[in-house]
Design a protein that fits this description.
323 residues; alpha+beta; Cell Division Protein Zipa, Chain: A; six-stranded antiparallel beta sheet; two-stranded antiparallel sheet
C-alpha cells in the first residue's frame, strides 16, 4: 500500500513539473510572437509615415501620375483665366505708360522762358516804334498845316539855358593819384549795428554828406576840405541815415584820396595821421578788426608803409610845382 502511494505521489510530482515546463515554454513562445508582431507593426507604421510625408526627412509623397496632354490643357486654361481677370481688374485703375525720356531734347529753363517772352515782346515794340511814311496826299495836307515862318527866332526857355550852362561849367571829377584804404571788419559771424556805428562816427566828427556816405572834414564842425571818407563795405556802399537803427553791416572802409582838394602843403601827412587814429578808434569802439586794403591784418609795418606813400607823394608834388 505504501508503495502505491509512493508511486502516485512521484507521478503527481512529475506531472506537476512537466505541466510547469509546458507552461513556461508556451509563455516564452507567446512572448516571442508578440515581440515579432510589435516589430512588424512598428516597421509598417514607419513606412506609412514615410510614404505620407512631404518633408525632406520623409521624402515627397507621390499622389499620382498626370497625363502630359491633360497637364498642358490645365496650364493653358489657368493662363487664359489669369489674363482675363488681370485685364478686368486693371481697367478701372489703369496706370498710364511712362514716356521714354529723350536726353537730347532741350529742357526749358526759367531764364529761357523769360528770354522767349522778351523776344515775343520785342517785335511788338518794334512795330510800335516803326516810322510810318506818309503818303503823297498826307504830305500835302501837312504842308498846308505848317504855319509860315514869321522870321522871328524862337527863344529858348531861361531855365533850360541855365541848366545847360551849369552842366558845361562843372568839370568832370579828376581821378585821384593815390588812394589809401583802411578796412574795419566785424568779427566772424557778427555784424556792426547801425546805431552803434552812427554813434561812433559822430564821436569821430564824421558828417553824413554827398554820395550818401560819411566824410571827415578839416574842421570838426564840417568846414574845410574833405580829408577822408567812410563807405559801407556792402555794395553800393551807401548809407540810409533815416534807417540806421535797423541797419547792419559786416564792415566799413575808410579811404583817403590824394591830392586832397583845397589842402595846403603838409596837410596830407596830418590827414593820414588822423585817418590812422580814426580807424583805430572805430575798430576799438565797435569791437571789430582793423585790416589793410587787401583785408589782411593791419600791422605797424603796413601803417608805416602808408605813411611813406603819403610823404613820397608830397615830395613829388613839391618837385612838380617847383618846375
Amino acid at each position: 500500500m505504501r508503495d502505491w502511494l509512493t508511486v502516485i505521489i512521484v507521478l503527481l510530482i512529475v506531472g506537476i513539473v512537466l505541466d510547469a515546463v509546458r507552461r513556461m515554454r508556451q509563455a516564452r513562445r507567446e512572448h516571442l510572437q508578440l515581440s515579432k508582431n510589435a516589430i512588424k507593426a512598428d516597421q509598417e507604421a514607419v513606412g506609412a509615415r514615410s510614404s505620407d510625408s512631404e518633408f525632406p526627412s520623409g521624402g515627397p509623397r507621390v499622389v499620382g501620375v498626370r497625363d502630359e496632354n491633360h497637364a498642358k490643357k490645365v496650364t493653358q486654361s489657368l493662363r487664359e483665366n489669369f489674363e482675363s481677370s488681370k485685364t478686368t481688374r486693371g481697367a478701372p485703375q489703369r496706370i498710364p505708360e511712362q514716356v521714354t525720356l529723350n536726353l537730347e531734347e532741350a529742357v526749358p529753363m526759367l531764364m529761357e522762358s523769360v528770354e522767349e517772352e522778351l523776344e515775343d515782346e520785342t517785335p511788338i515794340e518794334e512795330e510800335i516804334e516803326q516810322h510810318i511814311e506818309p503818303s503823297l496826299g498826307e504830305l500835302d495836307e501837312l504842308q498846308d498845316d505848317i504855319p509860315e515862318d514869321s522870321g522871328v527866332p524862337v527863344k529858348a526857355e531861361p531855365k533850360a539855358q541855365a541848366l545847360a550852362s551849369e552842366d558845361l561849367d562843372e568839370p568832370a571829377p579828376a581821378e585821384p593819384d593815390e588812394v589809401i584804404v583802411f578796412n574795419i571788419m566785424a568779427k566772424s559771424g557778427t555784424r556792426f549795428s547801425g546805431a552803434d556805428l552812427l554813434n561812433t562816427l559822430m564821436t569821430e566828427n564824421m558828417k553824413f554828406g554827398s554820395m550818401d556816405i560819411f566824410h571827415r572834414h578839416a574842421q570838426p564842425n564840417g568846414d574845410g576840405p574833405v580829408l577822408f571818407s567812410l563807405v559801407n563795405m556792402v555794395v553800393p556802399g551807401t548809407f540810409n541815415l533815416a534807417a540806421m537803427k535797423d541797419f547792419e553791416t559786416p564792415g566799413v572802409s575808410l579811404f583817403m584820396s590824394l591830392p586832397i582838394e583845397g589842402a595846403k602843403d603838409g596837410d596830407s601827412i596830418d590827414a593820414y595821421e588822423l585817418l590812422v587814429d580814426t580807424a583805430r578808434n572805430l575798430a576799438r569802439s565797435l569791437g571789430g578788426e582793423l585790416k589793410d586794403e587787401s583785408r589782411s591784418v593791419m600791422t605797424q609795418q603796413t601803417m608805416e608803409h602808408g605813411r611813406q606813400r603819403v610823404m613820397e607823394y608830397e615830395r613829388k608834388r613839391r618837385l612838380a610845382a617847383a618846375h
